[in-house]
Amino acid sequence: MTQTAVALANTVRFGLRSAKEVVENTLNILQTRDQTYHCVTKLLADRALRMAETLDARIADGTPVGALAGVPFGVKDLFDIEGLVTTAGSVVLKNNPPAKHDAVVVQRLIAAGAIPVATLNMDEFAYGFSTENAHYGTTRNPRNPDCLAGGSSGGSAAAVAAGMLPFALGSDTNGSIRVPASLCGVWGLRPTQGLLPLTGVYPFVPSLDTVGPLAGTVTDLQRIFEAMQGHSLDEVDDVRGLRIAQLAGWFAQDVEPSILDGIDRIRAFFGKARQVELAEASRLRAAAFVISASEGGALHLPRLRARPMDYDPATRDRLMAGAILPASAFVQAHRLRSWFRNGLHDLFREVDVLIAPATVGAAPRIDQSTITIGGKKVSARANLGLFTQPLSLGGMPILSMPLPPVTTGPGAGMPLGLQLIAAPGRENVLFAVGKALAHAGLAGYPVMGATGDAG
């Protein structure tokens, strides 16, 4: 297995490897192996090497360095990187002035010793679930390059799954971390709404946007999140004593049996059999669509009027449709959102963690245009967020957790993932559950090594 971020940082901090050597090796891997997967939009080679040399000098002088010392990482192409134009996966912004500062969460990771080495592919303006980008190409799933990586943080998830980067940053509005994490077999976190600063992150839907990390192990994910947040999380003493419940109804329909089997094993691990249903899940998903289209359309409307042909046609059409939605629909969607959030707060007085599928199944093939939902053929790409979109409205922290490799059934040979949801600010509970399940062999999917094989 590719070395974890925590292990890699220890080798650098204790002088077993230089940060410069690590960065040079990572840049070489990205230049060679990314030709297959198309995760990278820009390499930050000169800056990364300078940062590595500075870090090595500090270590040689005995100056304390952070917990992520020398760990290379990538950022979705909507995070500001000082000196570069933030393109948000588009050519529409190419003439904007370069960013004057790194995004705040990037600054925090650098303060912990991590080194940004690349910007990563995404759906244009984060409006999609597949990372099929008309300007920068389609990111392919490292588990099977004929399949989608998911989106819109597909470049981030695929780079981690391929073992090219120890971790990466993404954004999640309607599932843009959770969907690609699930399809690529890595861990991802949508933090509590508003917990991490969005300064220096190009917006999509301001009232729903969040940013978070993706990593190959849950331990790495926690350490990275703690660096982004600025402090360590409290430990959870009695994981087995937590009240766990499965989301049924909407979240159990049309799901690959292997996913439901994985949930059953987790319920057995906790000795709990409770199931709960979220009322109005289909309406909640529709509300997420309306809010996203309306806020996204309003953000882009002035530019759409001036330069409509610079957009990917599919993105342009969705944004223009959103811009003309009536205000009454937007208001009603937010009322439904408020009702849902209040209901979730009530539910979390009775349970500690909810479990749901992240997607209906494994990654679709790139040439596969439909999946079956409710007995009907529907767009695969439009429905990859079937289970993530309703939950986005709650503003709760959600951990995307890969199930172990499945050897039989429809999902055999490809990753499958779950969502773990907790009350606001309870990320520590999610990480505690994730680590317990990984230790028990009920969660976790091996990332690929430098050769391209699963390690």
From TrEMBL:
Organism superkingdom = Bacteria
UniProt-listed SUPFAM superfamilies: Amidase signature (AS) enzymes
The record, for Pfam families, names:
Amidase
Q: Which residues form the Amidase domain?
A: 21-430
Q: Transmembrane stretches, by residue range?
A: none
Q: What is the name of this protein?
A: AtzE family amidohydrolase
- The scientific name of the source species is Acetobacter conturbans
